[in-house]
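Hello,

Following up on my earlier ticket. Below are the two sequence lines again, exactly as submitted.
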Amino acid sequence: MGTRGGAAFRLSALALGFGFLYLPIAVLVAYSFNASRLVTIWAGFSTRWYGVLLEDDKFRAAALTSLEIAAMAASIALVLGTCAGLAMNRFPRFRGRLLFGFMLLAPLVVPEVILGLSLLLLFVAAQGVLGVPASRGVLTVTIAHATFTACFVAVLVRAQLASFDRTLEEAALDLGARPVAVLWRITLPGISPALVSGWLLAFTMSLDDLVVASFVSGPSATTLPMAVYSSVRIGVTPEINALATLFLAVVFTMVALAFWLMARQERRRIGAM
Amino acid sequence: MIGLGIWGRRALIGVPFLWLAVFFLLPSVIVAGISFAESADAIPPFRPLLSLTSAGLQSHATLANYRELAEGCLRVYATSLGNAALATGLCLLIGYPVAFAIARAPGMWRHLLLFLVILPFWTSFLIRVYAWIALLQPSGLINRLLLAAGLVETPVPLLYNGFSVELGLVYSYLPFMILPLYGSLSRLDETLLEAAADLGAPPWRVFVAVILPLTLPGIAAGMLLVFIPAVGEFVIPDLLGGPDTLMIGKLLWQEFFDNVDWPAASAVAAALVAVLTLPLLVAQRLIGRERAA
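Thanks for your patience. The regenerated structure is below:
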């Protein structure tokens, strides 16, 4: 496969594959700068849709709600997922471990419509029996998002713990450190890459979720995907293109930064060798 | 950690365990229960399974929701499974060469290409599906290119049919296929391929006899990661599909939001879990084995 034919084949696979993945996004971004209201006919460059978007209270309020929910849900998910990951990694046997493992994996694959429906029915039942939650909104969406994103955090934490060097912990314990201090000063810093990426993953998943939020939210809280969805159902508008472009710009910048940092680290490591 | 004490141990296990029991396990039991309830004009819109009357404890459990599902909606399940299976196959066909090329790319390029595969994960799913609407419309870019090239006389119906749903599924889930395939392909032992070539195997033979069997775990993982979420997909059939392309996720949504028939929606959910149980069990086995390895 090292022939010239092989190289041409690989290049065209990359070009076609990435063309397919990125062409729709490129067109979407291009039409956010269209002067016309139509998203199909190019009528010259303009930034007017960004102005319209920034003055749209509906999207601003929804974006703030989404950010608030995502930050809270990701933080809860980080705590839950880290505890679960540590428990599964460190305690090879306890009563209910099989069930625990199942509950940690199942939400990763259960369709969103089912997660949303089942949590809504729980909240309705709890309201009927206990009187809480009094109404559905930010709190119920946060709980729902924390629940399924915690399982993703647990996967990342377990993966990192699997390659974690336990001798450091043992050394600290031998030197007289209390177990809690070992956890705080050795274990958690040691798995910090998983904690950071776990929080970020939970945050973006919460920010991106339409289906679960639509089920468990109430009239008091509209998240950004819910607002986008209701205007997309009516029709394609350049305002949504502008919103999507801003969103993509933030993500691209963050990912590019991470890429640059990793590349720099790798160059340093190679330089040091 | 070893000596964290009984309370530390209880907290580490107990807090997430209780949370998941309350917010995942219990809701699943409630859905299963309500799927046997009668729908009613009330708040919440169903009749309790049990009620206490003068005649004693009475059960109102019924199989009617499942009967209706079996009579009216088998086609929806067939469409969903068929769409998901086709999308899985197409993702494999497109994803394998891409993953192969990424695994063969020189160092820095490999990082960059992997980032470009992962990037869509971090951007909005809804927006990526939405992007296709403008492209596929009768007045959209693709139709205008086809018309300009003289390939068609009138715009081709590309949107709100089986084609657009399939395209949306393949587009959205392609990264889920590429990543596990890349994982398998990047661990491939180069010397095995050289040995096969030195022994006179033509490239296709090397692929079929060496590369393909060695990357089977990646293929299986990728197929499950595409198939399982695609079966229950809601956004894609809703935004890109038409009346003939109803899928289970959308059916559940309609029963719940449009018909306000919660028991029917619960029955749809329970039947969907039943349909997905086999692939889910396979997935859990695979994840467990991967972890053990």
